[in-house]
Amino acid sequence: MEPIKNIPRLCRILGYEFTDLTLLDQALTHRSAASKHNERLEFLGDSILSIVISDALYHQFPKAKEGDLSRMRATLVCGKMLAEIALEFKLGDYLKLGPGELKSGGFRRESILADAVEAIIGAVYLDRGIEPCRQLVLNWYQSRLKSIKPVDQKDPKTLLQEHLQGFKKPLPVYTVVKTVGEAHNQTFTVECMVKGLNEPIVGVASSRRKAEQIAAAQVLELIKK
Amino acid sequence: MEPIKNIPRLCRILGYEFTDLTLLDQALTHRSAASKHNERLEFLGDSILSIVISDALYHQFPKAKEGDLSRMRATLVCGKMLAEIALEFKLGDYLKLGPGELKSGGFRRESILADAVEAIIGAVYLDRGIEPCRQLVLNWYQSRLKSIKPVDQKDPKTLLQEHLQGFKKPLPVYTVVKTVGEAHNQTFTVECMVKGLNEPIVGVASSRRKAEQIAAAQVLELIKK
């Protein structure tokens, strides 16, 4: 395997000196390149990112409701945001990819870049523990945390409604078509019908509201294309 | 509002003494009971639980693949498992619910119980920080972590197939009914049909496999009742 390029430069960009550089090496290794790849580190990094961002949002927005906090968190930890961070780090230049991925431009693929950022977070966590890792992630997210607002974030039902209103179309119709189970442990099946769709899309969940959100999210996916 | 019942006993059961008991009080307060309720704490607790369990699984299974780790984590942090823990704590006896929820048996509802466990985790985290919180959660999960195995975990499609085979029913049929978007950015609509259902359940996602899993998960929810 080729040696990793200019690792000291990458560490300067990341703002972190690894005690154990093999962790960084592994975090940069896609599964197409070697058997010791970054997926397990990504698994760890995903959870660490979540608690660091959750804690930051919790304290930054002492009056925000849970729904707003969750939506802001989802925005900050989504693949698109992580890929953006990866591009700032020029992470694509440092990734180890297998021949197939190299040929098809894997170093530019959003999901590969996002996964590598999570893997680096996991590597830092293993290298020096939660607090140094938290400080680093907060540095990376400084401007993003500064600019995020609760009102920017909306749930699928709201987004669907606004999307339809934007095109002057009628509002979606939600119908509970089935309820199964005992009173305290029910499952709701909800249909969401939107003009222009051939048939309603179904959402199933443990509450009517959740089932409606699931259905709305899927309708959005469909009609936004 | 009624005073919380026998809080010292609850602390003994949880295995934790709060420095700030108002945090525990808030964690036990459902949004139906007061404006200062447990949803923000639940938001925090959810992420803390995730990193504690992720870290434990990462070290307990040094050779497990990311997929197996993710499935084990999903099992350990799911609502059903959290509700089980809540029942062990007899948490329903300590919850503060509004009149409507009290009347409809909210203290037995799985989602309310699960959310309260996450809120308590969030409260402990705020009370004394990540390490004491981690130790407590690991105590609660000791036997569950001991018994979990990578092979126990299965995806919705596998679970659905096995469920149907167990009842000697025909296998589910998956059909791609729609594909929208350009080649590298498609959305797939898949129908999953199972004998005994009146109509197929639809899954929509960015890959055929994910759409099938979404549909299978919803069919499972429906037929398991």
TrEMBL record, chains A, B:
Keywords: Cytoplasm, Endonuclease, Hydrolase, Magnesium, Metal-binding, mRNA processing, Nuclease, RNA-binding, rRNA processing, rRNA-binding, tRNA processing. Pfam families: dsrm, Ribonucleas_3_3. It catalyses: Endonucleolytic cleavage to 5'-phosphomonoester. Its cofactor is Mg(2+). The active site is at D46, E118. The keyword Lyase does not apply. Mg(2+) binds at E42, D115, E118. Residues 155-225 form the DRBM domain. Residues 7-129 form the RNase III domain. One of its GO terms (molecular function) is ribonuclease III activity. Its EC number is 3.1.26.3. It is found in: Cytoplasm. Gene3D superfamilies: 3.30.160.20, Ribonuclease III domain (1.10.1520.10). Digests double-stranded RNA. Involved in the processing of primary rRNA transcript to yield the immediate precursors to the large and small rRNAs (23S and 16S). Processes some mRNAs, and tRNAs when they are encoded in the rRNA operon. Processes pre-crRNA and tracrRNA of type II CRISPR loci if present in the organism. Belongs to the ribonuclease III family. Homodimer. This is Ribonuclease 3. The lineage of its organism: Bacteria, Pseudomonadati, Pseudomonadota, Gammaproteobacteria, Alteromonadales.
